[in-house]
Amino acid sequence: MAVCYSVVGLSGQCMELEMPLESKVGDMKRAIEDGWAVPQICQKLLCGGRLLPDSARCEALPEKELQLVVSTEMLRSALQSALAKEVLNQLQLVAQNCTYADHAVWSAVEAEVWDCLQIPPILDSDTQDARDAAAAVLLDGALVCVKMLAAFGHLPAS
């Protein structure tokens, strides 16, 4: 059995998600990442004004309309930790696989990644790997912007 949820972004755009009854909020975040290219690490889901933990079961949610808030707070912390390369690799996958992305979200993500290039990760031996991964995310993020411009007819088709 599945349950339908409406996720509303700050722009007012709505995404309908049909989730299996046993799903958790973390599963919803993966679906949002796939549909809107908002990295999971940047997502906060609210239900009735309350922040939902990733481990919360969807069937226990009191409402079927959720609000998506995008925050780069966790991203910044992760990029300044030993997890930087792993997070950057995940961001690169999101950028490469997206068909639609919110320009404001990717501008914020790119700003955090750019800052990451200025501050070396905690593990000095991983500095070059993290910088290479950050550069790849910035390049793929630029491609996301080009895809969006082309989709809205602001660039000639190639």
UniProtKB/TrEMBL annotation:
UniProt protein name: Ubiquitin-like domain-containing protein
UniProt domain Ubiquitin-like: residue ranges: 3-67
InterPro entries, per the entry: Ubiquitin-like_dom (IPR000626), Ubiquitin-like_domsf (IPR029071)
Organism in which the protein naturally occurs: Durusdinium trenchii
